Amino acid sequence: MEGNGLSCDKNDMGTIETPLAGSAIPPMRRYALIAPCRDEAATIRITLDSIAAQTIPPTVLIVVDDGSKDATPAILREYQARLPWLQVVTRADRGARKVGGGVIEAFNAGFATLDRESVEFVCKIDMDLDLPPGYFAGLIALLDADPEMATCSGKPYFRDAPSGRLFPERVGPEASVGMTKFYRMSCFQAIGGFVQEVGWDTIDAHTCRMRGWKAICFDDPALHFLHLRPMGSSHVNIWHGRIRHGRGAYYLGTILPYMLVVVMLRIRIRPFVTGALGILIGYLGAWLKRAPRYDAPGYLDFVRAYQLRAMVMGKSRAAEAVRLRAVARLRH
Fold first, then answer.
1. Binning pLDDT at 50, 70 and 90, where does residue 37 land?
2. What are the backbone dihedrals phi and psi of residue 16, each rounded to the nearest 5 degrees, phi first?
3. 251 and 223 in one domain?
4. Distance CA 243, CA 235 (A)
């Protein structure tokens, strides 16, 4: 798929406009959902019910039970009895939840069972989401409208425990979110799938742009969904999740000046100082150890160019600028 110069317009608030309003539901399309999960009994019913209610149902939902010790396996058996497209892959218990690389390892176990020729789209999805009924129909419509787009998602919200109010998670429009990575199958295979490391859900977006493709999170009310476990909170605690975030940022190629800007901005987000400090500690710990980084040909230079521009013009404009440079390079 080669870039053709199409782009999405933005309104004055910086929100990407979508063609959803007033559009007809697209014709029945075939997509696969692959869901790594472990000990998700508290949320998995909500997610399965919201998938079952989709206006365009999945061709297959492959849930990879990665060694659950709670009621997750029993719940999956219950739903398998009434959802013909639900398949379960069971993996041996490795002893503990392994985020990042472990999640993608489990995803790959599910992907290996998929008949890839039978679907147009594939989505890595988490089992702690509450999706609106038109969610996947909306994503298919967006991909149909823009042949340069490789992957997209809606925007996640979480419910604040003290107040009960809904708040958007702080994610920019320049990458589809990790809990619902909806891809054209052809593009997903072209980038070689996901990297088995923390930061995989940013590396894939950079890799798409290196190939001249867009990766976008759409802030459209029709695509807003509830994330039942806030992003970055970790299965241990928020402090642990922020340190992991910092280590992942180092691995995916983040340069130090950009990281310092991120940390300063994070001070305004709860937990205010400790959350930002955890990210900085994680990053500097990896930097001092000269830990390994993802280093596909040209990748680190591409990320550096993007982040230097992002500090001047903002992430969205920088992402489009480096993508268009990649398109021009690929055409010559």
1. very high
2. -70, 125
3. no
4. 13
Residue 289, in any domain of the structure? yes
Alpha carbon distance 322, 19 (integer Å): 25
**How many domains is the chain partitioned into structurally?**
2
Residues 38 and 154 in one domain: yes
DSSP-derived 3-state class of residue 242: helix
Helix runs in the chain, H state only: 44-52, 72-80, 101-111, 135-145, 185-190, 200-210, 238-251, 256-266, 272-288, 299-313, 315-331
The reply to whether 326 and 291 lie within a common domain is: yes
pTM beyond 0.70: yes
Q: Angle formed by the axes of helices 256-266 and 299-313, to 10°?
A: 50
How big is the chain by its Cα radius of gyration, in Å? 19
- 167 φ/ψ angles, rounded to the nearest 5 degrees: -130, 145
Distance CA 266, CA 145 (A): 34
Kindly state whether residues 245 and 142 are assigned to the same domain. Answer: no
Closest of 69, 46, 56, 205 to residue 127, by C-alpha: 46
Reply yes or no on whether the pLDDT at 317 is more than 60: yes
3 state SS of 157: strand
d(CA 248, CA 251): 5
**Is the pLDDT confidence value at 229 over 90?**
no
246 in a structural domain? yes
7 belongs to a structural domain: no
Strand order in the sheet with 31-37: 86-91, 60-66, 31-37, 121-125, 180-184, 149-153, 214-217
Main-chain phi, psi angles of 8, to 5 degrees: -95, 140
- Same domain, yes or no: 59 and 168: yes
Strand order in the sheet with 129-130: 129-130, 225-227, 156-159, 166-168
- Measured CA to CA, the distance from residue 41 to residue 65 in angstroms comes to 11
